[in-house]
Specification:
It is a single chain. This protein is of the alpha+beta class. The protein contains 3 helices and 4 strands.
Length: about 110
């Protein structure tokens, strides 16, 4: 990596780096929208991934596992100074919540509205 790019990355807030990477990972045909908010009081980044109706649980779980892997790598590379939570929504229902301590899920699992 060039020194110029390295300096630029150091100036970009880490939550913006995380969001950019999550948007890359979630750039899939069945993802309708990604919203985010930063709760400064709790030092927490919230991400909501809205999924198109009719998307299979298997596809959502695959995305969930990729997002988890991405967030763990980002934390190792950037020493994130905040926590995060990711909600997956389908048809206005929260079908999955991903927290830092969660493990990878099997694609055979069934998602239920939380």
């Amino acid at each position: 990596m060039s020194r110029r790019k390295d300096r630029h990355l150091k100036r970009v807030p880490r939550e913006d780096l995380v969001l950019a990477r999550i948007r890359e990972v979630a750039d899939l045909p069945f993802v309708a929208q990604i919203d985010d908010h930063y709760a400064g009081m709790w030092n927490e980044l919230g991400i909501q991934i809205k999924i198109n109706a009719g998307t299979s649980d298997c596809e959502v779980i695959g995305l969930r596992n990729e997002v988890l892997k991405c967030l763990r790598v980002m934390d190792q590379e950037n020493e994130l100074l905040f926590t995060w939570i990711v909600g997956f929504w389908r048809e206005e229902k929260n079908i999955e919540v991903l927290l830092p301590q969660d493990d990878v899920k099997s694609v055979e699992d069934i998602l239920r509205a939380v």
